[in-house]
Design brief:
102 residues, four-stranded antiparallel beta sheet, Alpha-Beta Plaits, 3 helices, alpha+beta
Length: 102
């Protein structure tokens, strides 16, 4: 598995719209064969901060995801809503093993 956490800091006036756009993107993303999981989480003590938890089956799957219409729509829609450029950290799977992701 290839796990990416994408960190997004959103301008306060766009929090609700950002959540809606992320839910739209995530609901389409989980239908991609290369995505095992796609979570949208919001920081409890700072609602302008989000993490997108993206679990891909292979290191090649993020590039395929970025070629989809729903990703392009999301990226274009949220670009002006971000308070700073998004950042990411890539992780290696430890538990459950790759077969445990379904």
């Amino acid at each position: 598995m290839y796990i990416v956490h994408v960190f997004c800091h959103v301008k306060p006036e766009f929090v609700e719209q950002f959540k809606a756009a992320c839910i739209d993107n995530a609901s389409h993303s989980v239908q991609e064969p290369g995505i095992a999981r796609f979570d949208v989480i919001q920081q409890a003590d700072d609602p302008t901060r989000f993490v997108l938890v993206e679990v891909y089956r292979t290191p090649d799957d993020p590039a395929r995801h970025r070629e989809t219409a729903h990703y392009a729509r999301w990226a274009q829609t949220v670009a002006d809503w971000l308070a700073e450029p998004r950042s990411k950290i890539v992780y290696a799977n430890v538990f459950p093993d790759d077969q445990g992701w379904g």
